[in-house]
Amino acid sequence: MNRPVSRAKAKPKLTTLGTLRTSLGVTQTELARRAKMTQSEISRVELRTDCLVSTLQRYAEALDGELQLSVQIDGRSYPVRLG
Fold it and tell me: Domain range spanning residue 46?
């Protein structure tokens, strides 16, 4: 029996920064070089539960990514920018 194919977008799984980095095959040392940070700074960013948006943006860009912010209200997503 064939199951119907769902056309709904799958919600991406939440992941930690460290898990994301390692899944991309990037070491803390390499990421630190790309982000112009020290390896210990990368380690601290990955372990923190609170950090600056600018630090997250720098981290994402060093992985050749882009940080996107949005606010979720009643099931709707509102992209936001700061400033």
Answer: 17-80
77 forms beta bridges with: 72
Contacts by 45-54, CB closer than 8 A, 24 or more apart: 45/17, 46/16, 46/17, 46/18, 46/21, 47/18, 53/82
Centre a 10 Å sphere on the Cβ of residue 22 and count the other Cβ atoms it contains.
13
pTM (predicted TM-score): 0.80
pLDDT tens digits, one per residue of 5-20: 555 566 678 899 999 9
**Is 2 part of a structural domain of the chain?**
no
- Number of domains into which the chain is organized: 1
